Amino acid sequence: MDHDQVRDVDPDVADALESEVDRQRETLQMIASENHASQAVIDAQGSALTNKYAEGYPGSRYYGGCEHADEVEQLAIDRATELFGAEHVNVQPHSGTQANQAVYFAMLEPGDKILSLDLTHGGHLSHGHPANFVGQLYDVAQYEVDAETGYVDYEGLAEQAEAFDPDIIVSGYSAYPREIEWERIQETADSVDALHLADIAHITGLVAAGVHESPVGVADFVTGSTHKTIRSGRGGIVMCDEEYADDVDSAVFPGGQGGPLMHNIAGKAVGFKEALEPAFEDYAEQTVANAKALGESLSEHGFSLVSGGTDNHLVLVDLRESHPNTSGGDAEEALEAAGIVLNGNTVPGETRSAFDPSGIRAGTPALTTRGFDEDDCRTVGDLIARVVDAPDDDSVIADVREEVTDLCAANPLYDE
Ligand SMILES: *Cc1c(COP(=O)(O)O)cnc(C)c1O
């Protein structure tokens, strides 16, 4: 991956871009929301469509010269339709957050009620946290996971829905390792006459591949990010039934955005085509098998996993019992020094803070893209344990760093 043209104009940025490619190649990307898009997706995103204004939708634009933009956006829509089976698809949201905001803007009035999972229990900022405008514009109540099991407290959610009488219930999470029971949440939504937004941001690829049950056809709205497990380049997507199509489309544009990022929509089109290939199903299955292997390895090393394991692409480790003197932030820092990049994360019943939480979250989407299998992921579990058991031991960190280098060299990235 060269950046010769950038280098001619701007060596500083070229240096940073090349260093970033090296960083991705030479260290383990285990942030659960990250992945490695293919060179084809990256090329599509870096295309001349970045120049094009295409406000509106295919066949009905506010500008001339949109025939190729139309073609690309329609391909993205058609492929998403084939992947997910939704009646209506909008591929214009700049991000998953903006996809969620579009649904709220389409369906709610200021002051209306949102019931969503607490952020420290695995929810997302865009589900009504006060730091996001969604939390300030709407009346938000939050449900939780069961403190004992780590699974969504579906009964508690039903009781809370009864008492709070929400206009919309949000499901789909950022740090939740278990299968989500869409239908059970839908029943609760129906029982209180609320809409249901299923946010599959993290698991878009798993749902596309049929490795996680799909909320399409169950929930009223399904939103997602396109750069996480589906590796189609950075962006968002909204899906809904035909009855909400016009409201959703006008909430995305002009409601929340101006000109669509047509170059990113080209990336989505290419990435969705890749996801329609049979090989993508293998990828998604391997991603989950790898997360299970990683989780087993960590458990064997004495780590406590929230919910005891995983059904998807991530594990959430609660360090409080096994490593009471090491925060998630400390672990993140030591692991990064050893070439293992993941994030400190809050855990259910958090007793530290969002800035220095008690857990770490680790995902396998990016490792799986570069070819890691279950054995590799068990080895990664061993390496994580060595570092977190001795976060201040420089010689341990140096040894692990070398093993990480070997693992990376054995699984090359971007045509090394
Ligand atoms: C990542 C994520 C999003 C969207 O994130 P963007 O960075 O805006 O694409 C939305 N919801 C959940 C649950 C997420 O994990």
Automatic annotation (TrEMBL):
<keyword id="KW-0663">Pyridoxal phosphate</keyword>
<dbReference type="InterPro" id="IPR039429">
    <property type="entry name" value="SHMT-like_dom"/>
</dbReference>
<dbReference type="Pfam" id="PF00464">
    <property type="entry name" value="SHMT"/>
</dbReference>
<keyword id="KW-0028">Amino-acid biosynthesis</keyword>
<dbReference type="InterPro" id="IPR015421">
    <property type="entry name" value="PyrdxlP-dep_Trfase_major"/>
</dbReference>
<feature type="domain" description="Serine hydroxymethyltransferase-like">
    <location>
        <begin position="7"/>
        <end position="384"/>
    </location>
</feature>
<dbReference type="GO" id="GO:0008168">
    <property type="term" value="F:methyltransferase activity"/>
</dbReference>
<keyword id="KW-0489">Methyltransferase</keyword>
<dbReference type="InterPro" id="IPR001085">
    <property type="entry name" value="Ser_HO-MeTrfase"/>
</dbReference>
<dbReference type="GO" id="GO:0005737">
    <property type="term" value="C:cytoplasm"/>
</dbReference>
<feature type="binding site">
    <location>
        <begin position="353"/>
        <end position="355"/>
    </location>
    <ligand>
        <name>(6S)-5,6,7,8-tetrahydrofolate</name>
    </ligand>
</feature>
<feature type="site" description="Plays an important role in substrate specificity">
    <location>
        <position position="227"/>
    </location>
</feature>
<keyword id="KW-0808">Transferase</keyword>
<dbReference type="GO" id="GO:0019264">
    <property type="term" value="P:glycine biosynthetic process from serine"/>
</dbReference>
<feature type="binding site">
    <location>
        <begin position="123"/>
        <end position="125"/>
    </location>
    <ligand>
        <name>(6S)-5,6,7,8-tetrahydrofolate</name>
    </ligand>
</feature>
<dbReference type="InterPro" id="IPR049943">
    <property type="entry name" value="Ser_HO-MeTrfase-like"/>
</dbReference>
<comment type="pathway">
    <text>Amino-acid biosynthesis; glycine biosynthesis; glycine from L-serine: step 1/1.</text>
</comment>
<dbReference type="InterPro" id="IPR015422">
    <property type="entry name" value="PyrdxlP-dep_Trfase_small"/>
</dbReference>
<dbReference type="GO" id="GO:0032259">
    <property type="term" value="P:methylation"/>
</dbReference>
<dbReference type="InterPro" id="IPR019798">
    <property type="entry name" value="Ser_HO-MeTrfase_PLP_BS"/>
</dbReference>
<dbReference type="GO" id="GO:0035999">
    <property type="term" value="P:tetrahydrofolate interconversion"/>
</dbReference>
<feature type="binding site">
    <location>
        <position position="119"/>
    </location>
    <ligand>
        <name>(6S)-5,6,7,8-tetrahydrofolate</name>
    </ligand>
</feature>
<feature type="modified residue" description="N6-(pyridoxal phosphate)lysine">
    <location>
        <position position="228"/>
    </location>
</feature>
<comment type="function">
    <text>Catalyzes the reversible interconversion of serine and glycine with tetrahydrofolate (THF) serving as the one-carbon carrier. Also exhibits THF-independent aldolase activity toward beta-hydroxyamino acids, producing glycine and aldehydes, via a retro-aldol mechanism.</text>
</comment>
<protein>
    <recommendedName>
        <fullName>Serine hydroxymethyltransferase</fullName>
        <ecNumber>2.1.2.1</ecNumber>
    </recommendedName>
</protein>
<comment type="pathway">
    <text>One-carbon metabolism; tetrahydrofolate interconversion.</text>
</comment>
<dbReference type="GO" id="GO:0004372">
    <property type="term" value="F:glycine hydroxymethyltransferase activity"/>
</dbReference>
<keyword id="KW-0554">One-carbon metabolism</keyword>
<dbReference type="InterPro" id="IPR015424">
    <property type="entry name" value="PyrdxlP-dep_Trfase"/>
</dbReference>
<comment type="subunit">
    <text>Homodimer.</text>
</comment>
<feature type="binding site">
    <location>
        <position position="242"/>
    </location>
    <ligand>
        <name>(6S)-5,6,7,8-tetrahydrofolate</name>
    </ligand>
</feature>
<comment type="similarity">
    <text>Belongs to the SHMT family.</text>
</comment>
<dbReference type="GO" id="GO:0030170">
    <property type="term" value="F:pyridoxal phosphate binding"/>
</dbReference>
<keyword id="KW-0963">Cytoplasm</keyword>
